[in-house]
Amino acid sequence: xxxxxxLLAGVAMLLSAASFAADAPGTxxxxxxxxxxxxxxxxxxxxxxxxxxxxxxGRRWEGRAEDAPDVIGIVPLVVVMHGSxxxxxxxxxxxxxxxxxxxxxxxAPDSLAIPDRLTYxxxxxVDTYERVHTLRLAELENALKASRDWSWVDRQRTLLAGSSExxxxxxxxxxxxxxxxxxxxxxCEDNYFVTAPRxxxxxxxxxxxAISARDPYFSGANPWNKDRAVTGSCAAALKDDPKAEVMVxxxxxxxxxxxPEVRERTAQFLRGVLNx
Length: 276
Known about the structure:
This protein is an alpha/beta fold. The protein has six helices and ten strands; from the N terminus they run αβαβββαββαβαβββα. The N terminus is likely disordered.
């Protein structure tokens, strides 16, 4: 005869097994990756906005872009493109740091606000990845356009930052209206994640790339990259850009934008861009 505790334990094991199966490599959930006006509008209105204390009456403000308060002043704006896990705690923590440390506002479009938005557990086919990248780039372009409605944005000091999936959009953006780019946890090169890098970075743009030497996705340590000449950083892609910097950490973790050494390097880089 089973006890209640045994029954609950059995249910927990079944749920755990189901969760594991759902997260197995190659899993795809949802279907929508269409960058329609309606979908892009959702990624913007539900975007996570953080305003520095200097702009928000002496106290940092955080909320959705659709709830942005009326403020007076002018500050830099960083458009932050999240990774495949959405506007996760690491993204919000990074935005808070930008506000408190550098006095910069930031907005992170929420791709997962799209109903039935396709999500994946790598590796999946490259055509699916490229559909994702097309959507993310459209989100970035829409965010830059929509942010023009905010009178407090310093148009000469608008920047892009992206981590992992979001970093591809930051690297591919071809506009000339941004002051600098931060590319975290992507290597700007041909790997399992893209058909080709297709970078839109200008020859003399300020760019900071930070990535782990043994990044579990984009370094040569990942067997998914075994048939490609992967170096594991943006160094080769940016070698002719005199304003580019590459930071390769002696680490094997993927999400690194909040590590102390990365924050220190980012702060130095951004101060040079924002206060030349």
